[in-house]
Design a protein that fits this description.
With about 120 residues, the protein is mainly beta. The chain is built from no helices and 11 strands.
């Protein structure tokens, strides 16, 4: 089992920034890739080696990063910059593993956080 808790959503004006956080614990050896998903689309992903990928809609504006903690918990962040109203959505962090590590499809992710709402006003 993998447990994910995401947070950090809120309201921001267009052009502003937000940082989403996802704390991950549990049996992450076989689910070692994490993505941020909105409206069924993986907008950013990262593997344990630090390789990242982004949907074209957020490339250059969003950055995904991870931080490993000593107590066997990892935190994955989504730094949202230059936000747009179309970025408004419920954002979920989710975990998967090979062979789906670099999938852009939400259906390929096995474990999900509870979601955090992002609202960008124009």
């Amino acid at each position: 089992q993998v447990h994910l808790v995401d947070s950090g959503g809120g309201s921001v004006e267009a052009g502003g920034s937000l940082r989403l956080s996802c704390v991950i614990s549990g049996e992450t050896v076989r689910h070692n890739c994490v993505g941020w998903i909105r409206e069924g689309v993986v907008v950013a992903g990262i593997d344990t080696g630090g390789k990242t990928w982004y949907a074209d809609s957020v490339k250059g504006r969003f950055t995904i990063s991870q931080f490993s903690q000593d107590n066997a918990k990892n935190t994955v962040y989504l730094h949202m910059n230059v936000t747009k109203p179309e970025d408004s959505a419920m954002y979920y962090c989710a975990a998967t593993g090979p062979p789906h590590c670099y999938s852009r499809r939400a259906i390929d992710f096995d474990y999900w956080g509870q979601g955090t709402q992002v609202t960008v006003s124009s």
